[in-house]
Amino acid sequence: MIRYDDYISPEEYLELRKLVGWRLFPLDEAKKCVENAYMVLCVRDDDRAIGVVRLSWDGGYVAFLSDVIVIPEYQGQGIGKKLVEAVIKRIKDDMKPGYIVNLNLNSAKGKEPFYAKLGFVERPNEDAGAGMNQWLALEE
After folding, report:
1. How far apart are CA 102 and CA 60, in angstroms?
2. Are the C-beta atoms of 33 and 54 separated by less than 8 Å?
3. If DSSP codes are grouped into helix, strand and coil, which group holds residue 98?
4. pTM of whole model > 0.70?
5. Residues 74/50, Cβ–Cβ less than 8 Å
6. Cα(137)–Cα(129) distance, integer angstroms
7. What is the pLDDT of residue 106?
8. How far apart are CA 61 and CA 75, in angstroms?
9. Cys-Cys link to 22, which of 10, 17, 59, 69 (CB 3.0-4.6 A)?
10. Chain-centre distance for alpha carbon 30
11. Across the chain, which distance is largest between two alpha carbons, in Å?
């Protein structure tokens, strides 16, 4: 039975990242990711975590949608769409009247059409340059 809840353990979070081939990092860093998120929504099939989304937001005009993960055998069933829609609903529910929020994301390569169907606009475009990022690491 598929259900959604607002908790994921750091171990489950890292396992989901692993199952979709994403970069892994230390467990204590994963713990901060899930504990410090504005919102976490985990999808479970019975007790098994099969998907997750995180929202980083300080209540201001910029929010970041991160870690929209659905493991491969559950993709194409509308789960990712429900996760993104839940984030959008949460922001709208928590916004103050008159506020505007720019919800940003970094799409996994090839997933841009999925986000476009949900109202996101690809960059670069006539209003904005390409999104950019930089991985930072300290040697131990």
Report:
1. 9
2. yes
3. coil
4. yes
5. yes
6. 26
7. 93
8. 31
9. 17
10. 14
11. 47
* Tokens linked to 80: 């990712």
Which DSSP category does 18 fall into? H
Closest by Cα among 49, 62, 64 to 2 = 49
Residue with tokens 């059409």: 113
Burial environment of residue 86 by CB neighbours within 10 A (0 to 12, 13 to 18, 19 or more): middle
According to DSSP, residue 32 is labeled: H
Find where tokens 């476009």 sit. Answer: 116
Q: Which residue has the tokens 């009247």?
A: 97
Give per-10-residue mean pLDDT for the chain (140 aa): 97 98 97 98 98 97 96 97 98 96 94 96 92 86
What pLDDT does 96 receive?
94
Tokens, residue 22: 């994403």
